[in-house]
Request: fold
Amino acid sequence: MSGVTRQSYTPEIQIIRLMCTGRVDLAFILRAFIDGADGVLIGGCWPGECHYVTEGNYDALSNVHLSRKMLSHIGVNPERLRIEWISAAEGNRFAEVANDFGRQLKEIGPLGKGEGLDVDVLKLKLEAVNKIIPYIKLVEREKLRVPVKSEEAYNKFYTSDEFDLLFNNLIADKLAISQIMALLRQRPLSTGELSEILSIDPSEVSRHLDVSARQGLVRFDKSSKIIVAA
Reply:
């Protein structure tokens, strides 16, 4: 999409609609963005109208909230991911939602460019998130379950200080280390270079490197003052 303006380009939207939105995996969402989609739209049955009595639409809602938080954390506009309740009989509503989402994405701009992110850095960040998805699923299952099956309860929890604290304590550090390791596997870098590329404070980079070194993931080359993936 090089050289395309926000006004003229046609955004690439990936629409996820399965037999049950409970099958929407975090990996599906990340893969769409890794493949270059400007936005992802998930259409699910209305809450309380699950055909399979699994209430999978709440699982999808949880995944969307979690994905939006991770996208925001790596510098991607979370509005690129959207979930809407649309029954199979609501063709007109589907068209309206898709058109509205397309207009919204035009305002945001192409993926990465709209955020001012380098294409290669963006892909690395998305791949870093994708790499720790198994761990994130475990955290979601063990620590982020909402006890009440209601849209209001899910929205309230995922916008709460409690969730922010859990995310920072359980996921943010893992994500930062995953990004650092992805860069170091490409080439050795200094702490300053890692900080600049990933837009992470140098003190935080140093902290993550210390943890990684204790785990045997990286080593410090004192002669050249760079960090190398072990």
Remarks:
- The longest helix spans residues 161-186.
- Strands lie at 13-16, 39-44, 81-85, 218-221, 226-229.
